[in-house]
């Protein structure tokens, strides 16, 4: 008896007939309406009476919202694996992570050869499929920056660019019957997808044994391979054989297949809507209940908690992996998992955490937070992983990733109040709000996470028009160190609400923020390139022009030192927006001309577009690298002395990249004590990247220290204690210590510029 512990899946196996092209689509929609998990389609490209399966799956994905989609199984003998991988990733991205890869080597070789496929022997077909799996996984591994090379005999790629990464880790299920295919399934695949009507007595058990043996030889746990089964038969009034009888008979037989043969995916074959309805309504719920009850009684370990030999050796000291709650273990990623490379790093910082938790709701956040406090390792919270400081990853510790909580929900149309999950990115938010003509100032890059920016500050492209992101936060849900789920607003827990807006990472794990969006029409987005030979003069003129401009103009400047005899160059990025209306292009041109006068103009382009076209949706898969040192400070004005100090820092060569962001206008309308972010008179933020923290600190302290006026921690990697008082000047710091003592007295949240609790 074998139960591999996988969550049960139920689905349909539909014939892609083209006599009534919409018939398969209607059956797929019915499958979704009935609550089934999966809809699959035959794939016979040589069959003229069938729709093309790829085209059908794409159409069905667009006509459904929840159900997952797969070929059953796709014929890789007639398809180029690299193109299959890109098609699969594209469909997965477009459908929100709903594509699964059921694939086979192909078997009807006369028909395949007639269509132009190269005929292969059975052994060659298995080798070709193995090569295809390697290529598909290589294409999906977009975090790997090296070109993909697979010198296969039947399928080869030589320097192919990887990507796109799919929306989720697409499993590869093989339609396999013979021993070599079964061994390939155990060694390389994620699932076995045969059809029960093709089996003789004992074939299922023998197949499982072969797969298990191959998995263990490859250092894998047999439970890593899901067992799915296409089911023949019919639900009838009288019993006349296996899966030929009443629903009760089906429930009994499928329950035994789950508990004794490890089958966790049941896919009913046939195109009769009444049979599909009877399966979904009379069989599926009862099987789920029976299997769940037996698993509770037997103490069955979930498949996600069972590890192969290779994965076990990669585990880190100080983490009790076996005690991880099952609801978290199902989606957790640890060293040795295929998804590990996609979640270990952040945007610029390399990491090697011992475990990445991926909760899907506030209860799982609380469960994960309680569990991690029992571990003897470092702990980090990650919104989307874009932070410059790199504190959303670590080496050997635990990362609590909030990407599973990224919904964007309008709470109140009249006040434009929006509830946003902490794991959403601002690009996702901008795209969701654009159809309403709404926007929230939100940094200058769409891959930035809501939770990080929305609890720290929020200097962004609409900053002079709207202020900081935190200035528009009206409520938050936060999980505190003791496991409480608290609501904070101006009226409820106002002390916590005050602290969350500027120092939220010190107080708990924020799960969502409610923010009042602004009404913003199309904006003008301008990109200028200027000669920065006279760096100080350029900065002084640009700063004066920005401060004198209408509040609808927000501008950032990036300066890099000259190299190879070339002069320093400046990249100017400017957004001009209007409250409740489109930006006026004529007025924008006049304002941009003043900015262009700051230095010799080398190039310029501008366009009118929605805010979502500026802060665009970006891939959240980060590969680390670079590991830069960073410093950040606030500046009141870019006067002559300040501009010359920045020029000297650039000339020191200790910084290879500097950015100045405008942060005045509406930001300065807020009282310094209204939020934990107290810097309400400065007009600019300066950040600098370098390759050595000590040398950068020395140059920064010498040149910028005398002219800076406070710090913005999101862009700083210097961990010296004086940074805290620069970021939180008194009396803000003392007030934060008091709030910290109330909500995190044991300083659980201490990895991101920790504020010590008051005595």
Automatic annotation (TrEMBL):
This is LLM class flavin-dependent oxidoreductase. Its cofactor is FAD. Residues 348-520 form the FAD-binding PCMH-type domain. Keywords: FAD, Flavoprotein, Oxidoreductase. Belongs to the oxygen-dependent FAD-linked oxidoreductase family. It holds the Pfam family BBE. The lineage of its organism: Bacteria, Bacillati, Actinomycetota, Actinomycetes, Micrococcales.
